[in-house]
Specification:
single chain, 254 residues, mainly beta, Inorganic Pyrophosphatase, 2,3-Dihydroxybiphenyl 1,2-Dioxygenase, domain 1, 2 domains
């Protein structure tokens, strides 16, 4: 059964295990409403089950939007995530709210193809030429999540790293003083990645200048040292980017 087809669909669920009820076999308490979609078939031959998020009282039925799917990789029983229209929950929130049952399974969360989970802090960089900046960031593996060509704006991401890029215009309301190269003087962005060497080689092969080559650094936090393998590079406008890969921790000699 292709459960992905239910994403973004409005569905009506029957709630057979309302909030506060007890599982008939395992005896845990349901902290959220849990039910099924009538007239559907799941991988286990039963109706498709669903979690209801955002309603904090026991329900008998619920109509809402399917915002995500929990795909169990070691089981054949996917779970739909339903919420009220225009309400959303992050992947981390879904994991916490469903952990009472999903902790017994291995799973991944599937979202609609156009879904973007926005960070709480997203730097917006004023750039002199948007296309030049995009060429640079794509070299590191960033992808365009969405863009507004009429505003020369792009929202880009690399894993959980997110930037907004806005080409400078004559009526730039955010520009409180004239900009001069290098932009962002006095700040560097530490970007944690899992493939530092790959990104480094991509920049080298594309002839971008590296500010300092890959080096290993250990920073003290209390009585332990946190390790990073990192290199520094400037983007086309001079913004400092410190690509970093975690090396774990070790005891500090105090």
């Amino acid at each position: 059964m292709n459960t992905v087809a239910y994403l973004n669909q409005t569905l009506t669920a029957k709630i057979d295990r309302p909030m506060g009820s007890k599982h008939p076999k395992h005896k845990f308490i349901y902290p959220i409403n849990y039910g099924y979609i009538p007239n559907t078939i799941s991988g286990d031959g039963e109706e498709l089950d669903c979690y209801i998020l955002g309603i904090y009282e026991p329900l008998e039925t619920f109509t809402g939007k399917c915002i995500a799917i929990i795909h169990r990789t070691n089981d054949n029983d996917d779970k739909l995530i339903l919420a009220q229209e225009n309400e959303n929950f992050s992947d981390d929130e879904i994991k916490v709210l469903t952990n009472f049952q999903e902790r017994f399974f291995q799973s991944e969360i599937i979202r609609p193809s156009d879904y973007v989970e926005f960070n709480k802090n997203i730097p917006e960089l004023s750039v002199s030429n948007l296309q030049n900046s995009l060429n640079f960031y794509k070299t590191a593996g960033f992808k365009i999540e969405y863009e507004r060509p009429e505003n020369k704006f792009a929202f880009i991401s690399l894993g959980k790293i997110q930037f907004m890029l806005q080409e400078i215009s004559d009526n730039e309301k955010w520009q409180i003083v004239p900009l001069s190269y290098p932009f962002g003087n006095g700040i560097n962005f530490q970007l944690e990645v899992n493939n530092l060497n790959y990104i480094y080689e991509n920049f080298k092969n594309a002839s971008f200048k590296i500010s300092f080559d890959i080096e290993e650094n250990w920073y003290r936090q209390g009585n332990k040292l946190l390790g990073n393998k990192e290199f520094l590079i400037q983007d086309p406008d001079g913004y400092l980017l410190r690509f970093s890969e975690d090396l774990g921790e070790k005891n500090a000699d105090l």
